[in-house]
Amino acid sequence: MLENSFLLSSKMKISIDHEKLGIFSQSHVKFYLKYSSFVFRALKKPTFQIFLHWMLKKERIEEQTVRTVHVKVLPFRRKNGKCLAGTCNTARGRIRIYPKTMKFCQIFKQKFGRNTLLVYAGNRARAALIHELLHLKYAEDEKTVRELSKDYFLISTQKQPNQSSKAFFIYTLIFYAKNSGKKASPSVSNEPSTSLTLNQTCLRASGVIK
Length: 210
Ligand SMILES: [Zn+2]
Prior knowledge:
Layout (H helix, E strand, L loop, with lengths): L11 E4 L10 H19 L1 H13 L9 E5 L13 E4 L4 E4 L4 H11 L1 H25 L3 H17 L5 H13 L29 E4 L1
Parallel strand pairs: 1-2, 2-4, 3-5
Antiparallel strand pairs: 3-4
The protein binds zinc ion.
The site of zinc ion (ZN) has 6 residues, from α4, α5 and β5.
């Protein structure tokens, strides 16, 4: 078993932007606090940490180049309305992972149920962390990062017990939702299932900060 200090685990923390708190209602804040602590636990799971350690080694990314991994409590919406899954400051080795919005989660829960939402939220954060870690090596080469993210994410699901049944479904949601056809409006519509706002699910909405 690896020493804990060697793993990314020790660099992870939940972080909240206090100045943003005023924008959100109490029920939203409560929701996002629960979401972030769930995601935090999902990312810290030993099997996933060992997987990350292996991936960094394989990619020859020194673990010291990762300074911090912040699991942000509140979502980050870009000007185009899309929510970021994560960001990577490659110069400082600072990674941030953001949640899906409460609205998205409510719609998702209605469609697929609570359990699938939890599996989705945990795996989306894992995929985002894999993606942002790869940016440390491949910087702005988004294409390579995306391709490798898919491969590594699949490997990571194979290393998690009890996940296999839903893994492929979640994988499809995370990486291919955008290709599922027409653009859906954020509100619940009567359209057939896949046209839910899953176009936001895609990890494309990820930023690199130099
Ligand atoms: Zn990216």
